[in-house]
Every structure is written in structure tokens, then in C-alpha cells.
Amino acid sequence: MSNDVLKTDVVLSCSNIKRYYQQGPQELKVLDGINFTAHRGERVAIIGSSGSGKTTFLNMLGGLDTPTGGTVEISGTNIHALSHKQMAGFRNSSIGFVYQFHHLLPEFSAVENIALPMLIGGFSAKQAQERANKLLEQVGIAQRAAHRPSELSGGERQRVAIARALVMSPELVLMDEPTGNLDSKTAKDIAQLMVELNSSTRCCFVVITHDVAFAQTMDRRFKLDEGRLDQII
User: Fold this and answer.
1) Staple partner for 208: which of 47, 54, 109, 202, CB 3.0–4.6 Å?
2) Sequence ranges of the domains in the chain
3) Which CATH class is domain 42-63+83-232?
4) Judging by beta carbons within 10 Å of its beta carbon (0-12, 13-18, 19+), is residue 127 exposed, middle or buried?
5) CA distance 82 to 222
6) Strand pairing of 77-78 and 69-74?
């Protein structure tokens, strides 16, 4: 990634993000003034010990939690200045989410799970199904389109979840331990898939992970510790 791209294609910008919790007379500083940027087409890993605040930070980035102080901007939009209704619409159209446990709807097929955000966003059923089928091809499981989650392997379910995160063509996808529930070979396959999708979509991936090998495949790596985020060289 060139320096010119890094300077001009900022997708995510965090300024002095703080998240404090009151525990009786004490104030717990989970996030203590984090400044962070991520760029179009970049893959960023955030690592840290359990309880370090990684998921809290990801929830701030996705508008699922509100910071005590600071701002989060996605493509120039201050997301925490939006109303609840605006935030819901913005998340659906502009942010993709992938979790350790896929959170697919069990009664829906793979293609239906992927198409759902487009239907919520007002697209026609035909448009949503066409886009979902295209993404199933991209993630390598087009033959599993009609299968429900219970009929898919762990790796296949995660591929469906990644396709669902990309269906609205967001600039930013947030991932919370996407390989944490997978065996090592399947985790490597998912890491390679991310490289391929990153190249073809130019989407920005921000990934929380305990998987050191997975983190090593990213463009940049950060460690969250004692409320601070520092880049790992």
C-alpha cells in the first residue's frame, strides 16, 4: 500500500476514544484516549489479552456502544452523532460484521442469510439473491447456496458470514475472533480468503484476534493494553 493511498483513503478515524466504567467509587478505564486510523484496502489486526477491551473497542467502531469521550468517523461520518434510527441504517449500509460464532439465522439457507441485509436495505428480492449468489461464488461455496447453517461445516458457515458482511459493499468490515472457533487448517483457509477478498473488493478489514499466525497475515498489527493501542513493528 503506497503512502499516497494511506494519506488520502482514510475509511476509519478514531480521535481520543475513551470508555470508562464506574465500579463503586473507582473508575475503570477500559479505553484511555485511543487514536487510530485505517484505510481503504487495508487489513489491520488488533491483539490483546482477555479483558483488555478489544471487543469494547470494536463495539465503539461499529456504533454498538457509545464512547465516554472522543469521536469515531467512518468515511467522514461521525457515527456517534447519529440518531438510533440513522445509526441502524448506517450500520446496515456501511459496516460489515463477522463474529467468532457466525450468528446465521438457522431457519434460512446460506443464500437467504447473505441476502437479508439487502432486503432490510430496501433492495428487491431479485437483486439481493443475485448479489448473494455472486458472493457465494467468491467465497468458494456456491454449491451450498440452498443449505441451512446446520448443514454446513464451521468453515463454510464463516464463509457465509463473511459474504453476508460484504453484501452491501461496505468500505469497512469489523471482525471479532473470526477464526477463534475453527481448526488451524480452516483458519488458514479463512485468512487466505480474506486476502483474496481484500484484493478484489478493496474493503478495509479491522480484525480482533488471539491467533498470532492470523494476525501476521495482516498489513498492520496493534496491541491493546491498559487502555492504550500501540502498533507492533
Assistant:
1) 54
2) 42-63+83-232
3) alpha beta
4) middle
5) 28
6) antiparallel
